[in-house]
Specification:
Layout: E1 3-7, H1 28-37, H2 42-46, H3 50-53, H4 56-74, E2 83-86, H5 90-97, H6 103-123, E3 127-132, H7 136-143, E4 150-157, E5 160-165, H8 167-179, E6 184-187, H9 200-210, E7 222-223, E8 230-231, H10 237-242, H11 250-259, E9 264-268, H12 273-281, E10 286-290, H13 293-304
Parallel strand pairs: 1-2, 1-9, 9-10
Antiparallel strand pairs: 3-5, 3-6, 4-5, 7-8
């Protein structure tokens, strides 16, 4: 059985999502992350209301923290993972889990990444919208109605593509998509046009932030959102910086993971978004969620057999 490990990104956060883990040994990771950042974080996954979790930095740290706790609970049971990947922010989690990035450097980078992308969004306000039922080609054509104002931000799965750009650019592209027959256009409740050229200032700043970060060879290849290819090297500085301003190529990433021979994926963290996307893209691959201690116990029991 080829096993790959996947980590979710921003958008999967919910109030109280860390509560099931509070009294488990894996919760020790929270103390490590708090020490690395020098600030309390447990309330983000225990008590923070939805309004707070809508803020970019808080949302991303909450998702990262919950995923790291879930990974701590199962990591010793999956020493033979053949690949890692993460959706958007989840790529940082994947780098930590694979050993390519230390926990300390990883959480600091995630926090700074969130701050810089939100800063870019504040400087150049933007929106995002999901085109349901659209092909990547239809999405790109719709963005053509707003040149240099709207781009394809996420190619998530067949029938789910996300566009982003300036407010007027997204409106123009959304209208063009409807005219082209796209089933539904759904505005997303996010704080900016992430994964577009409007994040160029954040990408530039991250180059400097990452200059002193040491990356290591991962224990298994990490499939990058940037090019949807597996990378077993330690050359992640430029990939991690550019990642914030280019399309998340998740559909192609899942195809690449299946091409490596993965027959099962573990979605480690809160929610089941990645399982839903995988079902559309690589239905032959089974995705098992590790969102609660009971999920982790099931994985532990199966691997012990």
């Amino acid at each position: 059985m080829g096993l790959a490990v996947l980590f979710p990104g921003q958008g999967t956060q919910q109030p109280g999502m860390g509560r099931p883990w509070r009294d488990t040994p894996a919760w020790a990771v929270v103390d490590q992350v708090e020490a690395a950042l020098g600030e309390p974080l447990s309330d983000l996954v225990l008590d923070a209301p939805a309004e707070r979790l809508a803020r970019t930095r808080d949302a991303q740290l909450a998702v990262l923290l919950t995923s790291l706790v879930a990974w701590e609970a199962v990591r010793e049971c999956v020493p033979t993972a053949m690949a890692f990947a993460g959706h958007s922010l989840g790529q940082v989690t994947a780098l930590i889990a694979s050993g390519a990035l230390s926990l300390e450097h990883g959480v600091r980078f995630a926090a700074r990444r969130a701050e810089l992308t939100q800063g870019a969004a504040d400087a150049q306000p933007g929106k995002m919208a999901a085109l349901l039922g659209a092909t990547p080609e239809q999405a790109a054509a719709a963005c053509g109605a707003a040149p240099d104002r709207c781009w394809v931000a996420n190619d998530n799965a067949p029938g789910q593509v996300v566009i982003a750009g300036t407010p007027d650019g997204v409106e123009a592209a959304s209208a063009a998509a409807k005219v082209a027959g796209v089933k539904r256009v759904t505005p997303l409740n996010v704080g900016g046009a992430f994964h577009t050229p409007l994040m160029a200032s954040a990408a530039g700043a991250l180059v400097g932030e990452l200059a002193g970060v040491v990356f290591h060879l991962p224990t298994a290849p990490v499939v990058s959102n940037l090019d949807a290819a597996p990378h077993a090297d330690d050359d992640w500085q430029d990939r991690s910086a550019q990642h914030v301003m280019v399309t998340v190529r998740w559909r192609e990433s899942m195809t690449a993971i299946a091409g490596l021979g993965a027959t099962t994926c573990l979605e480690v963290g809160h929610g089941s978004m990645l399982a839903g996307l995988a079902k559309r893209t690589v239905p032959q691959v089974t995705v098992r969620g590790v969102a609660t201690p009971d999920d982790a116990a099931a994985v532990t029991l199966e691997e012990a057999r």
